[in-house]
Design a protein that fits this description.
Blueprint lengths: L1 H18 L1 H56 L1
Length: about 80
């Protein structure tokens, strides 16, 4: 009985391979993994840029404050 089940499984696998089902399934799985990998890399890149964005915004604020002080001093002359 066990041999019959194994034979059936092998035959079913051969049918799936011959029909192209296995190839499509493998291709679909590979594309899914590739998309997940790209999304993970994009998230990682975005997280890496977060501190950079915070620092740049703080630098812009300091520059604006210095320009305001400079303009105020120019007006006071």
């Amino acid at each position: 009985m066990d041999r019959l089940v194994q034979l059936g499984r092998k035959a079913w696998f051969i049918v799936r391979v011959m029909s192209g089902y296995e190839e499509r399934r493998i291709r679909s799985y590979r594309l899914q993994l590739q998309k997940r990998l790209e999304m993970a890399q994009a998230r990682k890149e975005e997280l890496r840029r977060q501190p950079e964005k915070v620092i740049l915004s703080e630098v812009r604020q300091v520059v604006q404050q210095m320009q305001a002080v400079h303009q105020h001093l120019e007006e006071a002359k």
